[in-house]
Amino acid sequence: MDIISYLLDALTPFNLVLALVGVVLGTVIGALPGLSATMAVAVLVPFTFTMDPAAGLIALGAIYTGAIYGGAYAAILVNTPGTPSSIATTFDGFPMARRGDGGLAISLATIASVAGGIVGAVALLVLAPPLAKVALAFGPTEYFWLAMFGLTLIAALSVGNTVKGLIGACIGLFLSMIGVAVVGGDVRYTMDMQRFLAGIDLTSAIIGLYCVPVILDLVANADPHLKPSETGGLRFAEALRYSLPRKFNLIRSSVIGTVIGILPGAGGSIAGLVAYSEARRSSDDPESFGRGNPDGVIATESANNATVGGGFIPTLVLGIPGTPPDAIILGALLVQGIKIGPTLFTTDADIVYTFIWGLLIATILMLPVGLLIGRYAYSSITKVPKAVLAPTVALLTIIGAFAIHSNVDDAQLMVGLGILAWILNRYGFQPSPIVLGLVLGSIAEQGFVQTYLIGSASGRLTEMFFMRPISIGIICAALLTLLFPIWSNWKSKRRTQLAQAGEQFADDGTEIAPEPNRRDVPGMIFAGLFVVLGIAMYVGASALSPLGAVFPIAIAAALILFSILLIALNLRRPAGGVGETFDMHSGAKRRIALGVVMLAWVLLMPELGFLATSITAFVAIMVIADYDRPGAKTWAIWIVSGALICIGFWWLMANVLLLRMPVGALF
Amino acid sequence: MKTALATIFAGLLASTPLAAQSVEDFPAQAMTYIIPFNAGGESDISARFQQSEWENVTGHQVVIQYQPGAGGAQAWSQLNSLPGDGYTIMGINLPHTILQPMAGSVGYATDDLTPVHYFHYTPDAIFVRADSQFTTLQQLIDHAKANPGLVTFAGSGSNSSNQLANVRFNAQADVVTTYVPFSGTGPSITAVLGGSTMAGFNYVTSAVSQGDALRMLAVSAEERLPAFPDVPTFKELGYDIVGGAYRGVAVPASTSEDVRQRISDIISKINAQPAFVEKMESAGFALTDIGYDEMDEFVAERIKEYTDGARALGIIQ
């Protein structure tokens, strides 16, 4: 076969070096939240103009796949997705790291990413033209139902707390509507503030919602950030032994990732969420998901790396980029004078196949590279003293949020949302449903309105929504996911009942805390606030065009409904439950101090300059996070290394990524 | 020691404020070119074509950055807060920068922006799938006349050039059709290719990447395009629809007149590079050469034209 002969073209030393350097660079960039594959690829495109097209493509593809993989590090070690693709990695990866299995989680993520990447790249190699039809078979209706399917994961993520999960999703959907609407063109819920015009940026919201609460908890007590592992290292052999019998999970997740990667505009985050949801549904032990089940990490990481190969399928076959990095690579190809489209695989076969082989090689190189970087990242996170770790992570969140648009507004929003998320989480409103709503909101809305327009034009509205074959498949999968937790819950209750009938009072000393059936007053207060928000949303929608108003009105109604339901459920419960006395112990003081420092940091940055505020805040957070009270010499070392970290990142952003840094009055 | 002093002195010389240097030396370092959209769209691809000629023409590189958001408004509203030394320029689009401020408060007014050169436009065109029942524009119009509202057009975004073209088409051909906005050219072409909508109003550039999978029924250019000699213009079929999305380069308002003219000249020079012309035309872009000296007149004409369109879209009364 011809295809094999191109493998030799890909194996030239130059191409191998490019693949290796690309993977290393990509992994590091992906691991830093906010620094994205898109940014790295965009900066490097001009260098590929002078290269041979295939070599340039290999470099860009290697960075891309490395970045998607690298996102797992931050997800596992600091509960913050390094890229949106690894949102679902946090669900189980961080709990694993917390209990001392962080090394194992990184190894599993590496194995899964390589496996997923290989499945995606092989699909691209042998099946690209027929698979591209999948992209065309997905119309607006299918996108709408896919988003609905993603939202059903909330039922699984918030078992026992479903109403709060649903409220969280409505909040996320509301956040997704802020800004200029794609359909209808209305300016919605910006409160006339320029910063909200472009909407809530997903990446900065994710960093805020997931990572800021982690830092706030980090400084609140002297416990180590992650429990030290008993055996140490990455436990690669153990990870391999664990994942081999789970090849079915690996392959299913990789196929899901490849197919969702093919859909333009869906992307790695949705692929990870869908694969996670499927892994949970088909597991014998769904309850353990979200509490550190390794299968959750395997599912997400294999799915998101499979989207890389999958995303190239519509890019190369149809000229329709699957993801933003694909779009940049598409532009690079056009500049090279290569015509994208159905004939590409025959006219420029040498370039395309050499590139695909190169991508495959880069994917395999992730294994040694990942294990090396992973070992270093894990040991430094566990060994670095808390007083240095906390400000470094805080610096990374602020850099990440800022870097997306070179805009301090995003960093301010990130800190604000993060503090809010910590408060909400304290009262049972978890961040994940909010993130799900934010990720899926615009896809759901566009799909819904487009289906509505097309359906009404032909007078077949019901048919459009419910009768298309792929849609029916997705609806069935969604119903399964939605009803399965309820069914399994019922089944396990039934089992306990049966057991109790035989052996009365046997479970007297169970460790599982009974559900707090007392009245949840703070929850009710929040629900009251959300009713007000819902009414404000409804009133705000009245000024919009009909196309732009339908979704806000639906979400406002749902938010009001769920909030009233929450209040009503609590009114039926006996009063005087969780006695909330807010005591100002030292942990709370440190938390408040950290929140204030971070807010001041982002608010003063445009006035005083990036370096001045960062170094000051870094030292301040060191003081807040310090429990060891070391000598002056250690402090001196810490402060110098803090300043070096700040300057290093400033240099990276200003001179390598060429971002416009805030200068302000000082520096 | 002497060499060290000389190095320091040379370093000081090199760091003399750029403003002090003469305009003839501009640019003396790499420039930054901000694209207010995501990568992969027409703005990005045409800028990448320019980028590959930039160093030949100016002797320095250009760095392309993306600042997407709010259909470009996010970046345009910040344009004037950027330094006006000429080293930061931004892509600018019509009708976006005229229609957006009309539609609502987007943080800038059309007059706030300083375009120095519009270097091309992408005509709108009606697309159908290769296996569609429509082979001529007349067949589509007949179908739309017989079934008001039934014909669906996919297009990129609301209040966009695509929707404006659709509104004009409805008025000129005296038909009622349904416009379905998508979040960009990619998704809207996908909808046409996949048969979600009957037809699409898209930019001609899409035809190049899709080859035989799509059929163009008419284009909104003055004359037939070199890349598509067989596709008629709306004008020759009797409908007065000419235009599309214009793309150019803008600078912060604080940029000096000399530098504005200089940047306009650079873009003009790139526009004349044979390799650039070849790439642009074969990708379906229609080159224009509207420099800084003709800018006021050009923008005033477009404002007049789009105001009528905005009235038809219901953006203004």
Automatic annotation (TrEMBL), chain A:
Species assigned in the record: Allomesorhizobium camelthorni
Transmembrane stretches, start-end: 16-45, 57-76, 104-131, 143-160, 166-184, 196-216, 250-276, 351-374, 386-405, 466-487, 524-544, 550-571, 592-625, 637-659
Keyword Transmembrane helix appears in the UniProt entry: yes
Pfam families, sorted: TctA, TctB
Keyword tags: Membrane, Transmembrane, Transmembrane helix
Residue ranges of every copy of the DUF1468 domain listed in the record: 525-662
All copies of domain DUF112, residue ranges: 16-436
Superkingdom to which the source organism belongs: Bacteria
Protein's name according to its UniProt entry: C4-dicarboxylate ABC transporter permease
TrEMBL record, chain B:
Pfam families: TctC
Top-rank lineage group of the source organism: Bacteria
UniProt keyword annotation of DNA repair present: no
Record keywords, A-Z: Signal
Signal peptide (UniProt feature, chain positions): 1-20
Family the UniProt entry places it in: Belongs to the UPF0065 (bug) family.
Official protein name in the record: Tripartite tricarboxylate transporter substrate binding protein
Source organism of the structure: Allomesorhizobium camelthorni
